[in-house]
Amino acid sequence: LLTFTLTINSCLLAQGHGAKGDNIYEFQIEFLEPVEPKPICRVTQRQLNITVQKKESNWWERLTKQEKRPLFLAPDFDRWLDESDAEMELKEKEEEKINKMKIESRVPKDPFKHLKKGYLIMYNLVQFLGFSWIFVNMTVRLFILGKDSFYDTFHTIADMMYFCQTLALMEIMNSLIGLVRSPLIPAVVQVFGRNFILFVVIGSLEEMQSKPVVFFIFYFWSITELFRYPYYMLSCIGIEWKPLTWLRYTTWIPLYPLGGLAEAVCVVQSIPIFSETGKFSLGLPNPLNVTIQFSFLLQIYLIALFLGVFVNFRHLYKQRKQHLGPKKRKMK
Prior knowledge:
Helix content: 55-70%
Largest sheet: 3 strands, antiparallel
């Protein structure tokens, strides 16, 4: 156990408890030139490290005012720098700063930078509020009505879900024009996949709108976005909140497969209805006289659905390793 008090240009006083009991340790150093009044102290299991910073960055002929080195001092040659080494180190730092300034000056300044950032913040905020409303509304109704809330989810939530998913088309545009660094294909797969389920499979069939599967689709979608949009919104202003980052890149692991499964169940349930009604079926003119059933296209879509889930799962897994995986140290 070691407790100590340090006064610059005065003395260090420490009290330690060892094999011989309590002992007082003290030494005094009068530095050659002024130093910063608050040194950095670090106690390890083996030693006490005290880092004292010079007030002015210049070369000292020696450490102390007295010409003869104190007997209790010994240089650490692993950290030793002579005058030429110190000057070289300072010169390298100055050159590094100059090169950095030159590189920054070459990069053309974007006059619309703040406008773009403001747009992205507002977009993510609006989407977060929209999906938060959906999630809270569905959760409250589930607690109050129980399973009965499954059957009228669409009629209660549809307008807000239509708004959020239509607005989500901007994510494709943002990626396409380079406003965000997100890859285009995962954005296209997710946005068009969801909108196909929402507008075509559910929205066009009244028989599907009262199915319990609609509740699970909307619920999985909203939970996912509760963490995604606030994460992107804070990223726009350079803020990273680690719990939110963890949630953003972890909750999708169960939610994406569950959401994909719910969408697949929805498609399977709609196939007999589309076959019976013939809705969206395409009749080819003579002499072929063939009708392409929309239900057949839905069976093909099921394969594309699981491929889309795989594409997004792979993309998010790479992002998770990048943000939550162990950081690689650069070799000097």
